[in-house]
Amino acid sequence: MGQFLVRALLGGSAALAISGTGAVLTDREHSHHDASTAPVVLTPADTIRRGLSGKLKGPFFSYLTSRPFTDKVNGRIGQYLIGFWPGERGRVTKVAYQNPGGFIEVTQENQNTPVSDHFRLRDFITHDQVGTWPKYLVLRDVLVDKLELVIDQLENEGVVVRRMTVMSGFRTPQYNGPGGDGRSSVSRHMYGDAADVFVDNDGDGRMDDLNRDGRVDYRDARVILDAAERVERLHPELTGGVGVYRATAAHGPFAHVDVRGWRARWGLIG
Fold first, then answer.
1. Which helix (H) or strand (E) holds 223?
2. DSSP state, 9?
């Protein structure tokens, strides 16, 4: 594996394809998570590149050890089953749905590596193949940046956010499936720029009462929607989709946030 920089197909942002073996954290409080054995030589620009939010952890979005897309053979890298993107089957024509440039290699040792103030690598991995390591992940820095900005907007409105849980981040095409049952066959989750999230400060695995009306329901997910709207007004380059979902027997209410490059809204938004 070598180091290379992959530029995203959308927005000119760096698309991530990394492992934890190629970067050194300089933040004292996080340095124990890093598995590097030798430091990466950084330019001044690398050390200050922390996104619009100022909360991205450099150098994770600049120079990172990676696995190229071509390392996927017969839908797998090693024992990890990934599947096939629609673009590999010739079923899409938009640039936004072209195949990712590569993959983040997530190991048991580096899974807790911070990628920003509130998020770690493990927050975005696909929820399958529990016993299989390493795992492979596609993640765009602009998604993490937007989530941090959403948190900023929530806190500006008096909503304390100690923990934003990513219920679903990256989904391999194999896990996402062909669509149906509420999933798109070209879900942005497969492209590393979408996350289903909720605020969970008390750690009970469910959305908190963000609007302080004494109950937890889809109206609390709308609070996240409103924050995302403000982020997009301030930063049009982060325009994307936002969806609001009600609770089911399997999960509480949540909001979908992505950076697909064009505005989309759905669910219980009004």
1. helix 218-234
2. S
Q: What is the pLDDT of residues 157-177, one digit of tens each?
A: 999 999 999 999 999 999 998
CB 120 within 8 A of CB 18: no
Q: How far is CA 27 from the centre of its chain?
A: 21
DSSP bridge partners of 103: 67
Structure tokens at 6: 């992959």
Asked if 51 and 150 touch (Cβ cutoff 8 Å), the reply is no
**Whether the bond into 59 is cis, omega within 30 of 0:** yes
Which residue, among 102, 218, 193, 80, has the nearest Cα to 141 in the 3D structure? Answer: 193
Bridge partner list, 3: 65
Tens digit of each residue's pLDDT (9 = 90 or more) over 216-270: 999 999 999 999 999 999 999 999 999 999 999 999 999 999 999 999 999 988 7
Residues 115-155 have pLDDT tens digits of: 999 999 999 999 999 999 999 999 999 999 999 999 999 99
Query: Strands of 135-137's sheet, edge to edge?
Result: 67-68, 102-106, 135-137
Residue 60 contacts residue 145 (beta carbons within 8 Å):
no
